[in-house]
Specification:
Length: 316
């Protein structure tokens, strides 16, 4: 028999892919989501499996009958426009939600995985970012609500490990893309693909020389499942070290979609990190993990998804 695993935020982009992978390997999944940024369509195809959905905001006490082997805490707004629109729920789910999810893990003596983020490094002064770097975060800037919530969540998770002996894991997720990202979630990859497919201008914020490193969703999920099985309680970066400029990814998307779209520049958001690249030495060493999906392959699949989603919208 497989494990029984709780995923908070299971109707989101990454949460739904995690749920699918766990069901695939024979686990039972309890999905909890308040659907503030998640979408029931992401999990509709899982309904006939060993899958239960509970609509609940995990910033409030989580009550669940029966044994639980692991709690994966994924609930949180995660794209810059989402957390700018929902600053207080973002702080609450990172703080109160993490406390409640850890409380559930403690009550059930379950393993716990926190979805943390490269945002804990802020606008980094160390490049690439290793897990030992403490970061450069503006606590009162617009992104602070997300960054500080996740930093607090890491502190809370570590305290539950040290003081309650819970087997906790922390994954620091770098920019990830793939099918089921919301087209309107404002992030670079879905924005650029949707703009290219509609023949609109691609909106580059700032001069486009800022860098990111984009990881395809199946590589991320593979890393998280390896982390869940591992013995480590230290944070682990999971991301693709293939760093490129934002202008570079925009141009790649124009080429792959065969679009005639042009590039326009818009103001750079406040505190937008100038560089970001994971050092994945620890993941390689401890998890024997590294990304396998090339940017061209990942983008081709994501473009097909966005094309379908746009066609659906037109048909409705
Ligand atoms: N970006 C952009 N145009 C867009 C959306 C994003 O130039 O339409 C830039 C954004 O300013 C940032 C990078 O692309 O420098 C990645 O942004 P995203 O929102 O995907 O995630 P972040 O890495 O900032 O959390």
């Amino acid at each position: 028999m497989g494990d029984r695993i709780v995923i908070t935020g299971a109707a989101g982009f990454i949460g739904s892919h995690l749920a699918e992978a766990l069901l695939e390997r024979g686990d039972a999944v309890v999905a909890i989501d308040n659907l503030s940024t998640g979408d029931p369509a992401n999990i509709a195809h899982l309904a006939d499996r060993d899958f239960r959905f509970i609509r609940h905001d995990v910033s409030n006490y989580i009550s669940l009958e029966g044994p639980v082997d692991a709690v994966l805490h994924w609930a949180s707004p995660a794209s810059p426009i989402d957390y700018l629109e929902r600053p207080i729920p973002t702080l609450k789910v990172g703080a109160l939600g993490t406390h409640n999810a850890l409380g559930l893990a403690k009550a059930k003596q379950a393993r716990f995985v926190l979805a943390s983020t490269s945002e804990v490094y802020g606008d980094p002064l160390e490049h690439p970012q290793t897990e030992s770097y403490w970061g450069n975060v503006n606590p009162i800037g617009p992104r602070g609500v997300y960054d500080e919530a996740k930093r607090f969540a890491e502190a809370m998770t570590t305290a539950y490990h040290r003081y309650h002996g819970i087997d906790t894991k922390i994954v620091r997720i770098f920019n990830t893309y793939g099918p089921r990202m919301r087209i309107r979630d404002g992030r670079a990859v879905p924005n650029f693909i949707a703009q290219a497919l509609r023949g609109e201008d691609l909106t580059i914020y700032g001069d486009g020389t800022q860098t990111r490193s984009f990881c395809y969703i199946s590589d991320l999920v593979d890393g998280i499942l390896r982390l869940l099985r591992s013995d480590t309680n230290d944070p682990v970066n999971i991301g693709n070290p293939n760093e490129m400029t934002v202008a570079g990814i925009a141009e790649r998307i124009i080429r792959l979609t065969g679009s005639a779209s042009r590039i326009v520049h818009q103001p750079l958001p406040v505190d937008d990190p100038k560089v970001r690249q994971p050092d994945i030495g620890r993941a390689r060493r401890i998890l024997d993990w590294e990304p396998r999906v090339s940017l061209t392959e990942g983008l081709t699949k994501t473009i097909a998804f966005v094309r379908n989603a746009l066609a659906d919208v037109r048909q409705r």
